[in-house]
Amino acid sequence: MILPRTIRRMKERRDHRDGPYAHLFEPYQGDEVVSLDCETTSLDVKKAEILSIGAVRIRGRKVMTSERLDIKLKPPASLTGDSIKIHKIRAADLVDGVDIDEALEQVLAFVGNRPILGYYVNYDIRVLDKYFRPKYGFGLPNKAIELSHVYHDIIKWKTVGGDLDLRFDTISKKLDIPIIQRHTALGDAITVALMYVRLRHGSPPSVA
């Protein structure tokens, strides 16, 4: 039986309320957001294996590049020429990569219960949950913030008629934010963070 995500998260919160990860299920009370991105071997969640994970914290108007996560995992057998064409990550680039278990521990420690921001963020969360659930018994319970939805909700009031172009490159260009190392996990996470700050605060974001 496949439970709807909201029901499953309620069950996981109940099951882990007295465990070592109970704090992850508490409502976040701070002012930080974590911009997160995964590079994977496929866009199909069921087939996708994680190659790298990048994340950076946002504190108010500042993108805290000094507080970042840049993880490379060991190369999976499914790393093929087709996926390499997209993310330009070869097996040779991952020779010093870590095991998935270590990567998951780093993600939990870095993200905590902060909201997770991303571009198609639900894909990244679903891929991570595929690994989290067998190991920890729960998926990421964090609130998710989709950049393209934030952009749409803010910009649509300035647009008369027609559909908004929500492609990554278009949003970056419209907001006058440079794309940093496209199709790298950390580069995309930083770029999304900068775009989010611009949308939220309407001024050039600062980097710390």
Keywords summarizing the entry:
single chain; 38% helix; Nucleotidyltransferase, domain 5; nucleic acid binding; globular; nuclease; six-stranded mixed beta sheet
Instruction: Estimate the strand proportion.
Output: 15-25%
Radius of gyration: 17 Å
What strand order characterises the main sheet? 5-4-1-2-3-6
Structural class: alpha/beta
InterPro entries: Ribonucl_H, RNaseH-like_sf, RNaseH_sf
Keywords: Exonuclease, Hydrolase, Nuclease
Protein name: 3'-5' exonuclease
Domain Exonuclease: 32-205
Describe this structure in words.
The chain is of the alpha/beta class and 208 residues long. It has a single domain (30-202), classed as Nucleotidyltransferase, domain 5 (2-Layer Sandwich), CATH 3.30.420.10. The chain has 7 helices and 6 strands. The chain has helices at residues 5-15, 81-87, 100-111, 121-136, 147-155, 168-174, 185-201, and strands at residues 32-40, 50-59, 62-72, 116-118, 144-146, 206-207. Strands 5-4-1-2-3-6 form a 6-stranded mixed sheet. The N and C termini lie far apart (46 Å). The mean pLDDT is 86.
